Amino acid sequence: MTLDLPELPFPLRPYGPDGRWSYADGVLTGVAGSRQDRFVPPTGESLESVSDAPRLLGAPDGDFQLIARVSVGFRGAFDAGVLYVHVGERAWAKLCLEYSPDVPTVCTVVTRGHSDDCNSFTVEGDSVWFRVSRTGRAFAFHASLDGERWTFVRLFTLGDEEETGSALVGFLAQAPTGEGCTVTYDHLEFRPAWPADLRDGS
């Protein structure tokens, strides 16, 4: 099964648990089930309950920016709506609007074998704009409160240029500790270019 969105030049395919993905009137919706997450603990904890979450991914060509406003129906700690980058089973990254643990927070996870975890800033309400960009082997994460002025969050790589050139990019919903949550993505936009400046707000 694939899902074609008019805003994106590549089809999307579901991965992991059933996310009940749907699209209507410019809004993409996904649902995380109970205790679904994607995280490889650096502390070596068991992965049984935190190994997978619903993802909807596609493969863009070349340099790009993927933009969406993410809204989360928070119900439990660490519920999140995510823009996600996947290079391999232990090489992937998340840009999350997460209830962390009791206030909406922009946070990131970059996994190279094991995951790190970094909170950036808190937001009011249940929505924020996200942007993930790629050029060559580099990825960048940005967040925005209005979709106009962007805050630089993170710059990283997940492998060499050949590996990252075939990366899958898209959407993830998670509910690591709770009974599940619904995530929506709207104002979707794709730009076939790297941002002109990562740190000037553009």
UniProtKB/TrEMBL annotation:
Family annotation (InterPro entries): ConA-like_dom_sf, DUF1349, UCP022704
Protein origin, superkingdom: Bacteria
Gene3D superfamilies referenced in this protein's UniProt entry, alphabetically: 2.60.120.200
Protein name as catalogued: DUF1349 domain-containing protein
